[in-house]
Design goal:
By secondary structure, the chain is an alpha/beta fold. The chain has three domains: 74 residues, no CATH class; 239 residues, ANL, N-terminal domain (Rossmann fold); 76 residues, GMP Synthetase, Chain A, domain 3. Helix content is 23%, strand content 26%. A seven-stranded mixed β-sheet has the order 7-6-8-9-10-11-12. Strands 13, 14, 16, 17 and 18 form a five-stranded antiparallel β-sheet that branches. A hairpin with a 2-residue loop joins strand 16 and strand 17. The longest helix has 12 residues. The two termini are 31 Å apart. One of its GO terms (molecular function) is long-chain fatty acid-CoA ligase activity. It is found in: Peroxisome.
Length: 423
């Protein structure tokens, strides 16, 4: 369902995927009514076969009869859309975030400031080696992990997925690792991880979710490493703040990037307030998105007079370091990914055995949070927990899947019908 929705919403004309997902892609295409033909290209290893009717990425690159004169008709435009990344929002359905070439390059340049830059410039005698385990369909993996490091000419070691042994083996070669809290926790808490695994590691950047200070200290007890944090969102291109290289405060997510502005506004009135008091975090800068694809109302609600309203609550200390307090948006963060409760609620409401439902995030030591569904069953059609878990799992990506179900007689709501999630 997610693949089908994004193919339609993005007006895509081609799909590039990998062998493990080709069946899901073909199924999604088959469900699109009046669909145009979607050429499908598969990135595969030589040992992997591809289904009939698809082309391999290697074949595409080796095609020799392309009309290269077509390239001359293309006029480079720095303000043209470079990528369309889907970010969950409070409306539930994912929205396509438009990031231009200028916005992506601007963020890379901002991250190259000497005060926050992590990687060294590549030279004849030295090249940093970067752990690249973050998925590149996520803006953190794509822009921060890949684009900003290609900017310096670093070497990237890519892993298709997290497997402890291959991760630790590859980590022995790395000088820098871009991680999310569960991976920091793994390195700090797992007794099999020793200083030998971290021998060359100089720096870690944590992003996508707040780091556990206790987990960070456990990791630091194994080897002294510079641990930096950053804050951002897909709509921000994505980085808004980053820790200075000299910062030893693990609780902060850093300072505002160069050539950008930040302010704290009252969550009720929207008025600018004392930045030392908790309020909604807003940002303006050359890296901020152009808007949501084909969603003008959602864009207007998020971008106001050029200011991106994050939906997150935070404050600054006297030195300009930002601290995250809470989220206005009711998104659940699973392994650094955003999960919209409303999207899961809409799916569950389509089940005949569900009369009403509310989804909230439950703190989880491994993943940050996991979605829990509170369900009012339909009288006479009471579903089992296993049935509902399987139902949701068949419709969403793995990280969005419901962790558990709690059956209730009613869902607490206010007078306007809004779910009281904290109850």
């Amino acid at each position: 369902d997610e693949i089908r929705y994004q193919l339609i919403d993005s007006d895509s004309s081609m799909v590039i995927t990998y062998p493990q997902k080709i069946n899901d892609v073909n199924e999604a295409i088959s469900k699109i009514k009046n669909s145009k033909f979607f050429p499908t290209v598969v990135i595969n290893n030589p040992s992997e076969s591809v289904p009939e009717g698809t082309r391999t990425f290697k074949e595409l690159l080796e095609t020799r009869n392309n009309d290269e004169t077509l390239l001359k008709a293309i006029k480079p435009n720095p303000d043209a859309m470079a990528v369309l990344l889907y970010s969950s929002g409070t409306t539930g359905l994912p929205k396509g975030v438009i990031l231009t070439h200028r916005q992506i390059v601007s963020n890379c340049v901002q991250l190259s400031h000497p005060a926050i830059k992590i990687a060294y410039e590549t030279s004849k005698s030295y090249q940093d080696v970067i752990m690249c385990i973050l998925p590149v369909f996520h803006v953190y993996g794509l822009s921060v992990n890949v684009f900003s490091n290609l900017f310096y000419g670093t070497k990237l070691i890519t892993l298709p997925k997290f497997e402890p042994q291959s991760f630790l083996t590859s980590l022995k070669e790395c000088t820098i690792a871009y991680l999310v809290p569960p991976l920091v926790q793994f390195l700090g808490n797992n007794p099999s991880v020793t200083s030998k695994n971290l021998e060359k590691l100089r720096s870690i950047l944590n992003g996508a979710a707040a780091i556990s200070v206790s987990d960070a200290h456990k990791l630091l007890s194994k080897k002294h490493i510079i641990i930096n944090s950053g804050y951002g969102m897909t709509e921000a291109g994505p980085v808004i703040t980053a820790s200075r290289n000299t910062c030893i405060d693990l609780a902060t997510v850093g300072v505002a990037l160069s050539n950008s502005q930040m302010k704290i506004v009252n969550t009720e009135t929207g008025e600018t307030m004392d930045p030392s008091k908790p309020g909604e975090i807003c940002c303006k800068g050359p890296q901020i998105m152009s808007g949501y694809y084909k969603k003008e109302e959602a864009t207007a609600a998020t971008l106001k007079d050029g200011w991106l309203h994050s939906g997150d609550v935070g404050y600054f200390n006297e030195e300009g370091h930002l601290y995250i307090v809470d989220r206005l948006k009711e998104l659940i963060k699973v392994k650094g990914f955003q999960v919209a409760p409303l999207e899961l609620e809409e799916i569950l409401r389509q089940h005949t055995g569900v009369s009403d439902v509310a989804v909230v995030g439950k703190p989880d030591s491994r993943y940050g949070e996991t979605p829990v569904a509170f369900v009012v069953p339909t009288v006479g059609k009471e579903p089992t927990e296993k049935e509902l878990l399987s139902y949701v799992a068949s419709k969403v990506a793995e990280y969005k899947q419901i962790n558990s179900v709690v059956f209730m007689t009613s869902i607490p709501k206010n007078t306007t019908g809004k779910i009281l999630r904290k109850q």
